[in-house]
Amino acid sequence: MANKHTQVDDIIETMRKNNGYATLAYLNQNVDTSNWITKTPFESIRCYLQRRKEFFRIQPGLWALTESKESVLKKFQIKENDKEQNEVFTHAYYQGLIVDIGNMKNLRTYVPAQDKNKIFLDKKLGEISSITDIPEFTYPKITNRARTIDTIWFNEREMPNAFYEVEHSTNIINSLNKFYELQDFRAKFFIVADKKRKHEFEDKIGQSIYNSIKTLVNFVDYETLANQHSKMAELFKSPVIL
Questions:
Q1: Whole-number Å distance between alpha carbons of 135 and 46
Q2: What does the pLDDT profile of the chain (242 residues) look like in tens digits?
Q3: Among the four given CATH numbers 1.10.10.10, 1.20.1000.10, 3.40.640.10, 3.90.950.20, the one describing domain 7-75
Q4: Three-class SS string for the chain?
Q5: In whole angstroms, what is the distance from residue 211 CA to residue 206 CA?
């Protein structure tokens, strides 16, 4: 007697078609749940990923098949003892999530020139960001400073909507100094980092020199960002990268 096709099989098939890995957002959009007897298929997918041995987590929001572990880690050049290379992957991954969220919001997305060739899963960051050059939204001195921000969202008037800095291991002070110079714009400011660095962020932003931007800068941990990415895909049904 043939084994009954299960919901887990549906997830595995989708991931196999995607080279053995996928973001949760991608799975939410591409797993065929039409025959699932549940009112919360997205939550079911999340639970299966977290609980079943067939899957393993690479980063928050990014999963792969256990059967494909060796090939997937090799593809992303993730090595157990290669801290520098793993940091490159991690930084580009969260930049990519931020760009993809901005795209789903129909905002114009920008990454600096030095990051355009960095790889977000299967694509270069320069390929998924919607603009290649930063709009000249203010004086050249300030615009040049903004060019170094990890990811920027711009509105339809080419004014900044949000500035994001991904701080995996570098000094948070550098990002706060950039935000300090950009504080006069009606934009949001975000430090994206591991939740273990929140106390460090609070300590730095609490210094008196940053009083004028203390209420403008927000801390977003990796898990929260990944959850926002998958929720955006659920709500807007916008195509996600992977």
A1: 39
A2: 456 889 999 999 999 999 999 999 999 999 999 889 888 999 999 999 999 999 999 999 999 999 999 999 999 999 877 888 889 999 999 999 999 999 999 999 999 999 999 999 989 999 999 999 999 999 999 999 999 999 999 999 999 999 999 998 889 999 999 999 999 999 999 999 999 999 999 999 999 999 999 999 999 999 999 999 999 887 765 555 55
A3: 1.10.10.10
A4: CCCCCCHHHHHHHHHHHCCCEEEHHHHHHHCCCCCCCCCCHHHHHHHHHHHCCCEEEEECCEEEEHHHHHHHHHHCCCCCCCHHHHHHHHHHHHHHHHHHHHHHCCCEEECCHHHCCCEECCEEHHHHCCCCCCCCCCCHHHHHHHCCCCEEEECCCCCEEEEEEECCCCCHHHHHHHHHHCCCCCCEEEEEECHHHHHHHHHHHCCHHHCCCCCCEEEEEHHHHHHHHHHHHHHHCCCCCC
A5: 7
Instruction: Sketch the domain layout of the chain as residue ranges.
Output: 7-75, 83-236
